[in-house]
Design goal:
The protein is of the alpha/beta class and 367 residues long. The protein is built from 15 helices and 13 strands.
């Protein structure tokens, strides 16, 4: 089995992920659904050949020690891929994520243009993009970097594991550092980034207390920090950050968050109703006086109502976003309910039942 042919087929199908397993045919994820790619199963030899082609020398050393590794693979004729290799039942397995060569714009991604442009042009603070694996977090951050690159003069440093999107300097100078190759770990990269005069620091993922603390410190000292978390909404995001730390530090972290937090953009991809593809459902929590006060006082369960009632600040709940997508004919009623965190409220919106400010809908997303 020629792995290059498999990668070409993956790209042609516009699939997001490729799954390789010994004794099983390759499978791809298209619009969120996994489907088989042909009927020929991969042999051990096929997998060894694929591993030798895709996994670079540095990642192979990591794989020998840890039995798993993250890296990136690029073929000029096919494209760029983020790769995770691992062992399962003693055999090598791999999952490859296709990284598009062209970085989509906010309009292409279905994101609220004015809000995203405003967040990208902030001079300082912490902006987080959250969601489950495969929800488009990295692509959203890439679109923000791309917008900065075309709009303002800045020095941007990225710390990634591995590097996904590649940028060419336009108005911005962009230095991309890969964990394990260009720097030892996120903590080291962030500590040294502070001495490299950046305007913007992008952290691929906030995985532990040390990285979170370094990100908050960078935001406190006047930098714009962008990062991701595997959380499903703004409330869970704030609680996850606080709970990275021991209880005796919670009051301090809440105070710091209330000072540096600028926005949380949570997203989940929903199948389009009438055409192939998916569209993002969004929850956007931007910094408002009320939300800052809630964060400082530890009133995170009240954040949902604050988001719902702060449309004029650019906030939006998932239900408001899903209702707009349904009204536009982009998604079905069933998918709107299935992706809602509060289906009962969603049903009330469909029925036109008003319940105070909860009946307010976010303005239609400008495209």
């Amino acid at each position: 089995m020629n792995i290059r042919d498999v990668l070409k087929a993956m790209v042609q199908l516009r699939s997001s992920d490729l799954f390789l397993k010994v004794a099983s045919p390759p499978r791809v994820r298209v619009d969120g659904a996994v489907r088989q790619l042909g009927t020929v199963a991969m042999t051990k030899e096929d997998m060894k050949d694929a591993f030798a082609l895709i996994i670079d020398e540095v990642a192979r050393e990591t794989f020998k020690k840890a039995h798993e590794c993250d890296t990136a693979f690029e073929d000029p004729e096919i494209g760029r891929f983020r790769v995770n290799a691992f062992l399962q039942r003693g055999q090598i397995g791999m999952v490859l994520r296709h990284v598009r060569g062209d970085i989509p714009s906010f309009k292409d991604l279905g994101l609220p243009i004015e809000t995203m442009e405003r967040l990208a042009l902030l001079k300082r603070g912490l902006v987080l993009v959250t969601g489950i694996t495969g929800s488009g977090k990295s692509t959203t951050l890439a679109s923000m970097i791309s917008y900065m690159n075309a709009t303002v003069n800045r020095h941007i440093i990225t710390c990634e594991d591995p590097i996904e999107y590649s940028y060419k300097d336009e108005r911005c100078l962009i230095n991309q550092r890969e964990i394990g190759i260009d720097t030892r770990d996120f903590k080291s990269a962030l500590r040294n980034a502070m001495r490299e005069a950046p305007d913007v620091i992008l952290i691929g993922e906030m995985r532990d207390a040390e990285t979170v603390a370094a990100a908050i410190d960078a935001a406190e000292t006047g930098h714009l920090v962008l990062s991701t978390l595997h959380t499903i909404n703004a409330q869970q995001t704030m609680e996850r950050i606080i709970n990275f730390f021991p209880p005796f530090q919670h009051a301090l972290i809440r105070m710091q968050l209330s000072m540096v937090f600028q926005a949380v953009v949570s997203q989940r991809l929903i199948p389009r109703k009438d055409t192939p593809g998916r569209v993002p459902g969004l929850e956007i929590m931007v910094s408002t006086p009320t939300i800052k006060q809630m964060l400082e006082e530890g009133r995170t369960p009240e954040l949902y109502s604050a988001i719902r009632d702060s449309i004029h600040f650019g906030c939006m709940t998932f239900n408001q976003s899903l209702y707009n997508l349904f009204e536009q004919g982009s998604i079905s009623r069933e998918d709107a309910l299935a992706n809602s965190d509060n289906p009962d409220e969603m049903e009330m919106l469909f029925r036109g039942i008003q319940r105070g400010s909860s009946s307010q809908m976010a303005p239609a997303i400008k495209k």
